[in-house]
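We treat protein structure as text, and this decision shapes the records that our systems exchange. We quote a single record here, exactly as it is kept in our systems:
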Amino acid sequence: MSRILAALTILLALLVAASLALGDVSLTWRDIYHATTGTGDADPQSVMIVFDLRLPRVLLALLVGVALATAGTITLAIMRNPLAEPGVLGINSGAAAAAMAVIVLIQDPPVALLQAAGFLGAAAMALAVYALAWRGSTSSLRIILIGIGLSSLATAGTTFLSAFGDIGSVQRAMIWLAGSVYDANMVKVRLLALWLIIPVMLAFLASRELDLICFGDNYARSLGQPVDRVRGMMIVLVTVLSGAAVAVSGLIGFVGLVAPHVARRLVGASHARIFPVAALIGACLVVAADLIGRIVLPPLQLPAGIVTGLVGAPFFAYLLWGRRHGHE
């Protein structure tokens, strides 16, 4: 496992370096070195590009990838469904509906209000799904079915607002819904990093509980696990992680599905091993998606959510094909 972690860390470092170097204005490795260390004859323009534009963007992408991958790993475990991801809990749809409402109904809303609305919409949807799924106890099937239903309802609300809202406001909302870290700054980076420390640590500490719940509710209860309480706490963690990521970057899909599946193939079924590997894979995915979106069609910039969708859709089809033929 140490080799896998080392390889992924090196890959992430290379992606970060490439993200700092490439863009509308390309920088040499010497420019980056002088700008980041403050040594030599650092060009003020290079310093501004690195610290004000690219470094906050790549760091925010990295943190969003870690959050989405960790949330996806938890979701796969508690739902025991290889096609499940945080969107199953309605988190993405709730955040999208709330953000759309703020953008369309309020003239020039502040960024902080938009982020708060996205997080609160995600939390409200997750709470509604869990409350409606409770019937003396919870089951992953009920949660999935109710999540799909409420997601469709939230999507209908989003569509209604986009159909009758101001064209300019709707266009801004569509850009947010596509998922991007283009408006990153160090304040967002610091806030998201502080926000993620405790949830990520709690997720890792819950590795054994997730290992147990993967075997089924009855088996876990026979070993003394309070399944409903554990599932409820894990849904809270998923909401905190995904809601924070969605609030700062919009909807970046499939990271929570791809990262844990690849990590499981690399290191096995133990969640203590899956979490760090999935976090690194998620960070690599979002950083790479943002980099590709910036350089593939210059001067246009594709949102990272579009790039991850182009990767995630075939991966989803692959999982469906495997399920059709009885593979894991």
Summary: Residues 44-79 form the longest helix (36 residues).
